[in-house]
Amino acid sequence: MPQFTAERPLTFVTGNAGKLREFKQILGDSFPIVNLAVDTEEIQEETLEKISEAKCRQAAAAVNGPVLVEDTALCFNALGGLPGAYIKWFLQKLGHDGLNKMLAGFEDKSAEAVCTFAYSAGPGQEVKIFQGRTDGRIVPARGPANFGWDPIFEEKASGMTYAEMEKDQKNKCSHRGKALVKVREFLESA
Ligand SMILES: O=P(O)(O)OP(=O)(O)OP(=O)(O)OC[C@H]1O[C@@H](n2cnc3c(O)ncnc32)[C@H](O)[C@@H]1O
Ligand SMILES: [Mg+2]
User: Fold this and answer.
1) CATH number at residue 26
2) Which residues are ITP-binding (predicted)?
3) Which of 13, 14, 19 to mutate to test ligand 1, by most ligand atoms within 8 A of the CB atom?
């Protein structure tokens, strides 16, 4: 375990309350973690790994210490993986109903939720990537609209939308939960 201390904690850089809430539920308080919202520039890139890596380098420079960032993508299979990393803007402009309508012309409503964490020990240090993926499909909204696109993502294995699940159930099967298992393994072995 890298020596995170109260003076030099691991900083989870995000401005998203839902992400932070789940992050804390999943990782608990096993070591000193603080949260900071740094406005990072989101680059346009081919791969989710490169987007998270760029975000991580900016965050490490801003914090000047160990950082963890994540980027979440929602990939519609009928659209070749789009909106992917651009889901935030599509959700903001179109809402749940509009996202469903985007797939109206396609039989295939399947989608993949992808969470990509990136860790750096500090500015100029190597960036480690941890990814979690969950299969599902896009459905008309069901369940409380507490977090992003949770009501319209029906997880494949359970047939429930993320929004219909108890928090523990979502965290066990979610893109974020799977990625954080890998993050924890790394932090515990490093
Ligand atoms: O500061 P950062 O960490 O970048 O936070 P963000 O809100 O900008 O997040 P992203 O760039 O990763 O955009 C992902 C979008 O998907 C949403 N989202 C992320 N994880 C989700 C989840 O588990 N369930 C539902 N919506 C989610 C999130 O609210 C955004 O609208
Ligand atoms: Mg963002």
Assistant:
1) 3.90.950.10
2) 14-19, 55, 71-72, 147-150, 170, 175-176
3) 19
